[in-house]
Design a protein that fits this description.
- The chain is globular.
- The chain contains 10 helices and no strands.
- It has one domain (2-208).
- α2 runs parallel beside α4 (52-76) and α4 runs antiparallel to α9 (134-162).
- With 209 residues, the chain is an all-alpha fold.
Length: 209
């Protein structure tokens, strides 16, 4: 219970965590920002304090800052970003997917990639590297951050209410649900990507005939 008792609306730590972790995990994806925001929801599940809205806003701001930090890094340090984040065959494929999808879907991709495991960093950095329109990027990341923060926090609240006397069980339930949603999104992305490559191969074969 100690871990949840400190994540309350009257604790300054809650607001700092809500901003800092989502901002940093854009560059360091191993940081458990989504888990922490879900945990905040679980910890405050029984509260009706209006400051809960401020917690969600802090998480959204943190996500927005992290996405735009990625953009600036890609824009100003493109060669370094390539060496650091897209090295090797796997990294090259990830960047190629990000650029190809960005050219095709634009702003909707920036919003959806927030929920794709590993997709967020690749897309945000690629936006900076290719010089994607800054105004459109800011709008898309503001929408994405707000949706992600609200979704993660209230998934935690639902889990916390379902297991009021067992917050860890509530956390696991909420986290499992978000993983399932991310898995569905990733599966759809892979299917569409395979179809796109197959269609390109068919068109290429027709052109050579």
């Amino acid at each position: 219970m100690n871990a949840f008792s400190v994540l309350q609306v009257d604790s300054i730590l809650s607001y700092l965590v809500a901003i800092i972790l989502p901002a940093l995990d854009a560059i360091f994806p191993v940081l458990p920002s989504e888990t922490v925001i879900i945990a905040l929801g679980v910890a405050t599940a029984g509260s009706t304090d209006p400051r809960i809205a401020l917690l969600v806003a802090c998480a959204a701001v943190g996500a927005f800052l992290g996405d735009n930090l990625c953009y600036l890094l890609g824009r100003r340090f493109g060669p370094y970003v390539d060496r650091r984040f897209f090295k090797g065959e796997k990294g090259a494929r990830r960047r190629a997917w990000a650029e190809r999808s960005l050219a095709r879907y634009g702003m909707p991709l920036i919003v959806v990639c927030r929920f794709i495991p590993g997709g967020r960093t690749a897309v945000m950095l690629s936006c900076g590297v290719v010089g994607y329109d800054r105004r459109r990027f800011v709008i898309a990341t503001a929408i994405a951050g707000t949706l992600w923060a609200t979704y993660s926090f209230f998934a935690g609240r639902l889990g916390g209410k379902a297991f009021e006397d067992r917050p860890w069980a509530g956390l696991l339930l909420a986290f499992g649900g978000t993983l399932a949603v991310s898995g569905v999104i990733e599966a759809v992305r892979r299917i569409r990507s395979r179809r796109g490559r197959r269609d390109q191969a068919v068109r290429a074969s027709h052109q050579t005939d």
